[in-house]
C-alpha cells in the first residue's frame, strides 16, 4: 500500500497548473491510502510527529484563509515552506465528477500535521467534520471522510499521526491512560488535546472566516459492560444556549437504529467517562478564552463530540450511513446564499473600478469591498474595508454591481468582496490583483523612432482632463499638421505621425493643455 501511495503522489506531482497540483480518481480510495501510511507507535515510526512552530501555525492559518477565499494558487505557494501542497482533486466516483481541494504533506515532507479537505460547493457551509484519531479509533478516519462527503460539509480535518506517536506531552489540561497504560498527560501528537497543532489553529481560523462554525468530531471507544453504544457531548456539562444539534443528532440516530443506547454528559450529569470536556477544539467553539488551560463556562451547541462503539456504527462501513444520515437530518442545508458569476477590476488613470455579477441571491444584505497592498515584494499588508454596496436581498435573476476605489496610489493592489447575509453570515470572494499607476504630472515624451521615415509615435500624459492640442511645426514656425485638438480625459495617450508627404529635415511638435506647454524636436530622413 505504501508503494501504491508513492506512485499516486508521484503521478500528480508531474502535473502542475496555476501553481497547484491537479489530480483525479476515486477520492475515497485515495483517503484510504493516506490513512494506511499514518505513522503509528511502532519503533520504526515512533516520534515522527514534531509539533509545528508558532510561525508554521501562523502560515497554516494564512493558507486556510486563501483556500476559503478561493485563492488556490496563493495557498499552494504559501504551503510549500510547510512541506505541504494544495491538490485540486476531481473525484471520478461521483457523477458528474466533483472537485475538492486537498491540503496534504508532500511526499518528501516529514511534517505529519494532518490532511485537510475542502468542498468549494458544499451544501452545509458552516459544518466541519474532524477525525482526531484516525488510527487509534479504528475506522474513524475513513468514516469521517464518508460523512464529510455525503453530508456536503465545508471541510474535513484528519490527523496525520497516531495520537501516541510522540513521547512529548501536551501542556494542556486533561489526562488519559491510552498511551502509557497509567494516568498521564495527553501527547502533543493528540490533535484534540494539543494547542500546538494544526487542528486547533485550523479550527480557530475557520471560526474567524465562517460565522457560527459547527464542528463535529468522530471518535471511537472500546465498549465496556456498563457503557452505552454512544457517548455524545457538546464539550461541557451545560445545556446549549442555541440550537441543540447534539440532541437532534441523537433523535435522528435512533431513527436509523432504535436499538442504540446513549449517555450525554449535560443530560446524564453523573456520567464521567469520555465526556470531551478537555477537548481543545470544543473549548474554543464553546467560548473559552484559554482552551489549553480553562474549561468552557457555556455551551454554544456548535461542538459535537461523538464516541462510538465499534461494531454496528464504525464497522462495517455499511453502518457509516447511520451517523451520516443523522447529521444530514440535524444540520440544515446552507448552500452558498449568493453565487458570484464574475468579479473584475480595471485601473483608470485616477481610480480602480470593480465590477461583479451575481447569478442568484438569497437574503443578501450586501458586499463589503476590501483592499490590501504590497508592503514589499513578498509581504502583504492586512485587509482594510473601503466601502459597502447594498445587495438585492433575494433574487433569481442576474444583478450587476460596481464600486470605484478613488484613493489608490501607484502600486500593486488586491481586492476581495465580503458578502454578508441579513443574519450576519458571510463569505469571501476570490481575490483579484490590479497594478495601478497614478499620473501626477504632465509629460511629453520624445518620439520613437527618431530619426524616422515615414512614421513615428508620440506619447504624452495629462494628470487632469481638459482641452489638448498637439501640432507639428517646421523650422520657420509654420504649423504643418494638427495631430490632436480636442477635450481629453486625464490619462496616457499615443499618436502616430506620418511624414510621407514632407521633405526630410528637422521639425518640432508642441503639446499644450491648460497652462502646460512642451516642445520636442524630430528628424525626418529619406
Q: What report would you give on this structure?
A:
The protein is of the alpha+beta class and 526 residues long. It folds into three domains: 327 residues, Aminopeptidase (3-Layer(aba) Sandwich), CATH 3.40.630; 99 residues, Immunoglobulin-like; 82 residues, Immunoglobulin-like (Sandwich), CATH 2.60.40. 18% of the residues lie in helices and 36% in strands. The protein is built from nine helices and 27 strands. Strands 1-2-3-4-5-7-6-10-13-11-12 form an eleven-stranded mixed β-sheet. It is elongated. It starts with a helix and ends with a strand. The N terminus is likely disordered.
Task: Summarize the main sheet.
Answer: 11 strands, mixed
Q: Helix coverage percent of residues?
A: 10-25%
Number of strands: 27
Q: How much strand content do the residues show?
A: 35-45%
Indicate how many domains the architecture comprises. Answer: 3
CATH architecture of the largest domain: 3-Layer(aba) Sandwich
Low confidence ranges: 1-19
Enumerate how many helices there are, as a single number: 9
Any idea what the shape is? Answer: elongated
How large is the radius of gyration? 31 Å
**Distance N to C terminus:** 77 Å
Helix and strand content put the structural class at alpha+beta
Q: Tell me, what is the CATH class of the largest domain?
A: Alpha Beta
> According to CATH, what is the topology of the largest domain?
Aminopeptidase
What number is the mean pLDDT?
90
Order the strands across the largest sheet as they lie in space.
1-2-3-4-5-7-6-10-13-11-12
